[in-house]
Amino acid sequence: MKIILNTVAVSLLLMLVGASGSVAWAAKNKNPATNYPSLVGASEIKGTHVKNLQNQDLGQIDEVLIDPDTGQVRFVILEVGGFLGLGSTRVAVPLSAFQITKEGDNSKWVLDADKEKLKSAPKVEGKNYQRLYTPSEAQPIFVYWKVTWVEPGSNP
Amino acid sequence: MLAASEIKGARVINFQNQDVGDIDELLIEPDTGEIRFAVVSVGGFLGLGSTRVAVPWVAFQIVNERGRVKYMLDATRERLEKAPRVEGKNYERLYAADAAEPIFVYWGAQWMAGA
What we know:
The complex is a heterodimer.
Chain A: H1 2-17, H2 21-28, E1 40-41, H3 42-45, E2 49-51, E3 57-67, E4 72-80, E5 89-94, E6 98-103, E7 106-111, H4 115-119, H5 135-144
Helix pairs in contact in A: 1-2
Chain B: E1 2-3, H1 4-7, E2 11-13, E3 19-29, E4 34-42, E5 51-56, E6 61-65, E7 68-72, H2 77-81, H3 97-106
Parallel strand pairs in B: 2-7
Antiparallel strand pairs in B: 2-3, 3-4, 4-5, 6-7
């Protein structure tokens, strides 16, 4: 119930503030598990290794996908390698599912996923990222990774 | 959906359809996933070699022209010449409000104080 109320509150707020809505949106959608007090270059993210909570290496980040209307990163494409023993499987994971923290000069990316979770995760074939823009394709991925669904292109 | 690695190297043009340079990097705030800045590598347009300027992402007009994405920026030569520069890869600096806000102001973009 609390979640529903929050959503309503956010919607109302966004209607009220109009063009400056991105301020409220960004503040409300801060990932509480993430603490990385710096900007990070997209090209530096590519190739970053992702670990799970058991400190196992899951694979590396292959691509960062951006919603052009809002300028928000929506998905990260994770290339799952040897961990699954399945060759190079690529899965789309919402950015908000990651915990990003600072480790020395680099960022540390953690995803709550075991082998089973990755095996059944929604896959990405080739570079057909357009597909991930449609809510019917994207929403199940948010649900799978248990993060709050955000409409594509919604520029609050 | 735009892939970050495809944006890198994309041409930036101004409203006079002049070639301004290309996008060298996207700077992302990890907490929110928001792209704060694009680093534009300004080349021959200024005749200054490879000057790099940080431009708020919201200052761009992104036009999809028959599948080709165009990045338009209201940037005359004058405006680029005086624009806040980026040296090296010290992007950490741009996270701080006191460094970032003047760049938003310079480009006439709304400063996202709450982010």
